[in-house]
Every structure is written in structure tokens, then in C-alpha cells.
Amino acid sequence: MPKSKKDDITQDKIEQPKTKADLSESDKTANTASIGEDDKPNHFDDGSKHFDVISPLDSTRISIKRQKRQDAQHNYDYDAIVIGAGPAGEAAAMKIAKSGQKVAVIDPRKQVGGNCAHVGTIPSKALRQSVFNIISNRRDPVLNQGVDYHLIPLNKILTKARDVVRAQVDTHTRFYERNRIDLINGWASFKDKHCLHIDMNDGTERNITFDKAIITVGSRPYRPDILDFDHPRVFDSDQILQMDYVIQRIIIYGAGVIGCEYASIFTGLGYKVDLINTQEQLLSYLDDEISDALSHDFRQFGVLIRNNEEIDYLETFDDCVILHLKSGKKIKSDAILWCNGRSGNTDSLNLANIGLEANKRGQLSVNEFYQTNIDNIYAAGDVIGWPSLASAAYDQGRCAAAYMVGDENAQPVRSVPTGIYTIPEISSIGKNEKELTAEQVPYEVGQAFFKHLARAQIVGERSGVLKILFHRETLQILGIHCYGNQASEIIHIGQAVMLLNGTLEYFVNTTFNYPTMAEAYRVAALNGLNRVF
After folding, report:
1. How far, in Å, CA of 400 to CA of 388, rounded?
2. Which of 10, 60, 481, 509 could, after both became Cys, cross-link 467 (CB 3.0–4.6 A)?
3. 93, 103 in Cβ contact below 8 A?
4. For the segment 488-520, what is each residue's pLDDT rounded down to a tens digit?
């Protein structure tokens, strides 16, 4: 059929695709796709009804050129090096990689995750959850029939924890692979401020150069010389995860966060626990009421707390240990767990070669940009001290990397909720009553006791309290303190409102699901308003 005039007009209006010869120089520069002209199929042939099929076996490939940051012109092997594959190191590496820079992470373990995933936060919290389940089942009159929950070997309880560690390693390994981050297994030490020497795990050695580096090596338990940690009845908080025999009684020396968490775990397993506290009260930086509640529950469950005590020396035997205190007391037990302090893992880095010096606890000093006194060396996580939490370490690492790549919107980590995984949990943010009293702030208190909440009664966890501290005139929230089941989750509701400068009225005017533990905010807010006159 001959074409009509209308067909010619329509055809003229259709914009014909440009050929490669027709492209301007700017068009050619903008086109970053790479397809061989000989391999490129004509997907729709104008002269045929059929289209070309696509096969993964042919040589056609479509790729995008990776854009290189214009300000990273140098001859180093890497734009940035991250030393340590824990939370801080991972967050830093991801941020740097997503900025388009070439980054490598160096860690002595073959598996990523650092101490957090292998001997710290992840296994200890998984262990804690298993013990919490045992306690809950023991309390349930239906589930506890015919089951002996007493004196369960710690190694058996750790089975779930090991599964969680493996799952975490697999998950985070994929993060590194997706972001094309090089993982180097070995021990790093500085040759100079732009070169690292690596003792590889396979016995070889290599040097790598870098523009900038961030130290995220984490920390390890402090080990005093007066204890023999090679003895099978002497443990630190890393070694305890390898215990493979049944005990009936254990001494925990040090009543900080780790000591209190393990006191909960061991007493939950039915062990007798002697908790040696070098301070006047447990976790003295907490709100006094929360600290008192923890002490009360510990004593109720059989933990013997010994405050204001200090070790003199320890005797070790094949079948027991005997702890001698400077007060003259002697305590006999099946084993001892040392939980008194941690040290930064900086001793093998040869910091002197770059003019850096760690303090006596192995920690590094940084400015508000997480920068050491060497301009191209940064640090984050446990190795810089406060707050020594996995949650904060991740944010610190990401923030430090943001400053490294020139992100002007980065903010240093300042607002960090306390999360203590005792049984029950403890979490807080903001000022406590002692601090507000010392500052002469006119505050008031709103309380919600968990025993009055329907959800707490349903799950059988009736111990606990939520406290809201607020300015009695402006109703501004000044501090939130929670003790009880799911405290580490509950705190984030208050944290969000507090950081947005919300007032107590937010909790009064907000509808919470019922029954929930979060309902405690409404109850506490109403309780607090009743005190205002």
C-alpha cells in the first residue's frame, strides 16, 4: 500500500536517534556506558517484526565507569586504610567506600566483626538471652515440669551464641563484598604516617601505602600481673566464653557493666555469685534509684555483693581458687572472672613511628573530628575511651570517616543512651536526680512501675520502673531512666522526644498501643503532672 502524505508528515516529526558520529564532544564525554560496537545487538530491527534476543553467553556487556574523587590525586595504594573490623571500622569503611574512595580494612581475624562479634557484645548478649529464656521457663508452671534447669554447663548454653556469631559474620561479610572493600588479614603496624607494615596470617609480609588512616582496633580485658590467666580456673571476660565445665560458685571481680551482666547470667544459671565491687555502690553513675533496684534484685536472686573491696592476692588450686581481699576477707570459689577494666589494642601498632602516644590504658586522644594529633590519622570506638559501647563505636566510625572525606554536615557523637544488659535491663539518657540537684535545677519526677502495666503482667516481668525527669516549669524532659524488661528498647522513644525538645505533654497527648511496655511513658507523664502545682 502506498504511503499517504499524512504518513510522511508523521514520520518527519519522529525524532531519529543520533548515531555515534552525530554525537557532540560533550555527549561523548557524558556517555559512560561501555558497549563494543561490534557486539552491540540491534534490539529492534526496523525491517523485521522480530526483536533480537539477549543472551548472557554473548560478549555484550554494559558497565558504568566508577567516578574518582577529583581531590584524591596521589600515588598511594589506598585512599584510606581502616585498622580493625569491629563496628567502628566497618562503619568507617562503608562511609569511605560510598564516597568513591578506595579503602582497605586490616584485621587479624579471618572473620569480620571484631571483638564485638566474636567475644564481646554479640556472644554475651546471645548468652544472656538464652539464660533469660531459661529463667522464664523456670518460672512458668507449665514449661518447668520434668525439666532440670540447674547447673547447665556454660558451653552448652553458648551453642546458640555461636550460631548468632556465625550469622553476624556472614551478614557483615556481604556488606564488605557489596561495597568492594578489600579485607586484609594480618597485624598492622606503622612504618610512617603514610605506610603500614602487615604481618600476614599466612606468614608473609607486605607494605601498603595510604593517604589517610583510621584506627579502630577496639579494646581487650585488662589483665593484672598478679593473676595467672593461664590457669583453667582464672578467666577474663573474653576467656569466659570458653569455659567447658560445670561450676557451682564463681567470684566476679569488678562490678562495672560487664561484671554486672555476667552476675545476672551466672545467677540465672543457678550458680552462687560473689560480686566484688571496688566502689561504694553498683554502677554509681546511674540514677540512685536504678542502682538500688539492681542491688535489691541481685541480692534477691542470690548474688552476694561486696562493696568497697580490693584484691590483695589470689591463690589457685586444681579444684578451687581463694581470693584474699585487702580488708582481710577470704573467699573460696570454683573459678574467678576478672572484669575490672579494659585496655586499648594499640601496643602492636608502633605508634612511636608516627609520633603518637597512647595513655596508660592504651587509648588515643582525638579532637571533635576524631582526628589525632597526626593530621591524616583518625581514631574511633573503644580505642578512644568514652562511651565504649558498640552502638556509639559504629556512629563514631561513620562520623570520623565523614570528616575524612570532607563531609561538612557530619556531627560528632554526643547523645548516647546507656544500655546495660543485666536481667532485667537498664537504660538511660540525660541527667539523673543527683546531677540535677547539684545544678539546682527545679525538676520533678514522673514514675511508672512495671508491676502496674498490663503488658508486664502478661509476660510475667513485673520488676522495673520508668522514670522521667522534667523541668517543673517548662515541662522540658531532662532525663529518662528505665529499669526492667526491654529497657534498652523502651528508652529510644524517650530519646527521640527528648532530642526534638519535646515536653512531658507529648506523652500525655499521644495514644500508645495497649497493652505495651511503651505505655509506661503515658503513665509516668501523668504521674509527673500530678506533682506539679
Report:
1. 16
2. 481
3. yes
4. 999 999 999 999 999 999 999 999 999 999 999
